[in-house]
Amino acid sequence: xxxxxxxxxxxTAWRDVPDPAIKDAADAVVRVVAVTICxxxxxxxxxxxxxxEPGRILGHExxxxxxEVGGDVRTVRPGDRVLVSCIAACGRxxxxxxxxxxxxxxxxxxxxxxxxxxxxxxxxxxxxADLSVHPLPSSVAxxxxxxxxxxxxxxxxxxxxxxxxxxxxxxxVVGAGPIGLATIAxxxxxxxxxxxxxxxAETRLAAAHALGADATVNAGEGPEQLVEDLTDGLGADVVIxxxxxxxxxxxxxxxxxxxxxxxxxxxxxxxAALHLEDLWIKDVTITTGLVDxxxxxxxxxxxxxGKLPTSALVTHRFELGQMEEAYDVFSRAADTGAxxxxxxxxxxxxxxxxxxxxxxx
Length: 361
Known about the structure:
about 30% helix, 14 helices, about 350 residues, 6-stranded parallel β-sheet, 7-stranded mixed β-sheet, single chain, about 25% strand, alpha/beta
């Protein structure tokens, strides 16, 4: 099969690799129908995630068709269309029992495209399939569902829930990339008083406004002053960092009010200064986290009911074999306007078809 292989810092290749096979009785092998690229993949290629070894197939988000399952798999069977979660869960360790799947100590957590081969391929082996893939309702399109593999659970859990967004809050989202936009969309579920989006790209600020941000401001044009003005000098109740660079994190800690919350979502490759000399007296809560994906079933139900604006985040579509072109477009988002790119396999059906519909085709 073909796959996107990490070959060292700054180098990848779309090339032939061996097909995956069942290794454990809890595994499933899935044919990739739709896949996307994450900002974390770019961090890997830059060398920010040193655990990823050359030769690793990248990617941790996909929708696909189950081709084969191990003898212990009970919740899916060959032929099922499924969402492949970015997080695998053994279901037995302490953290899995507490729904903290991202911290799994039984061989799960973030392993796809990180510690084992990932989803940016024609086929992928998924460990712990009973908890790590989700059957999709026929009403949900594959290119929409793939956004629930990572960015929506991450935005909702690590941003909105960790930030404890409440009705009436002033919420600042720093970074209007895919995660930031998904944070805006899911924060709105809690009816905050206002949402302020901060970014350097005007196209992303426009997207933030379209998804429900009440105010937008360029990161180079005084966002701290705007927050101060809109809150009568108090600061924001919740500030969510969705970039992953020291400057944006430090900005977040300056914009939060006393007693407020800073939720860090961004993947950081460099140290950020924590100014405790200013923060210790303010009763500020700072949270970090890797997504657990415990909210995925809830988000799937909301998507099926038309309550999540996923389609608005997909700006570019490619065939699976155009992986290198898709990476180029996604990595130059400031020039291309890319938010999320979706790649579909040659037999892609955006919505599952009944046997009668297949016959008509």
